[in-house]
């Protein structure tokens, strides 16, 4: 996972300001997996703030241009990555597709929606990386279609070690605009949290499944 630290801090600040990232150790959030977490990240909120939306779009485009060279198609991962991918594809004047987690059970039964051809060079867009497996299912679907997946770009990653390992196994370069460490740095600097909360936040990332036991 690769990141530009200045961009990471700026994006983290935006996410904290609009409460796309919320922190609450006393009353932790419950994820769909059942994990208890002191952090919840909802990057869909960025779409409701034009200045933040524009800034993130620009950083996505810069990251793609700097790291992937010529691209044929922008692919959004359903559902969180679709809107971001649409903004990027419009800015870059490129075709847009999106990839479901599984094929539809009716109609044409597509997993990939839109027009993409074998051999085309695709960059995948995601809003959030946790374990990475749902995002990598999109990569797998595109490769089975015969596409060349140049890599993936996401707004935010929790930086789990098993996520990093998953992307290595898939040989899929991942760039994120911000990450968990940058969020902690900015949150302390901007007094969203105090230094006493840092150990709790770091212990959660080491073992999120058992964090409620550890604290």
What does this structure look like?
The chain is globular and about 50 Å long. It has eight helices and ten strands. It has a single domain, classed as Rossmann fold (3-Layer(aba) Sandwich), CATH 3.40.50.2020. The strands form three sheets. The protein has a six-stranded mixed beta sheet, sandwiched between helices. Strands 1-4 form a two-stranded antiparallel sheet. The protein is of the alpha/beta class. Helix content is 41%, strand content 21%. Helix 4 links the parallel strand 8 and strand 9.
- C-alpha Rg, in Å? 17 Å
Could you say which structural class the secondary elements and strand pairing correspond to? alpha/beta
The count of β-strands is 10
How does the major sheet shape up? 6 strands, mixed
Mean pLDDT: 92
CATH class: Alpha Beta
Determine the strand fraction and express it as a percent band: 15-25%
- State the assembly state of the protein chains: single chain
